[in-house]
Amino acid sequence: MQNILNLITEHEQIIYIVILMIFLGIEVIGKVPSVLHTPLMSGANAIHGVVIIGAIIVMGKAESDNYMALILGFLAVILGTLNVVGGFVVTDRMLEMFKKKK
Fold it and tell me: How far apart are CA 16 and CA 5, in angstroms?
């Protein structure tokens, strides 16, 4: 427990920045009109593809006893993959609305 508290104390400024980025991201995404949702989703899919590759690289270069890097890398791969797949599903459903009916 003391190790976690020391880690938080050492990286306090970075933690504040991440929290502020989360709130800023929610505000920005909440203001996007629905017409722009599909192009933005496609861009987000490309970005999360890079996140997945980066997470795989982090996991590959992490030492076997560095559990924090392995756990965070694994979570980044799982969450990034879910976001990419979900983005493609949503984009496909939205583009389906514009196809001609048979």
Answer: 15
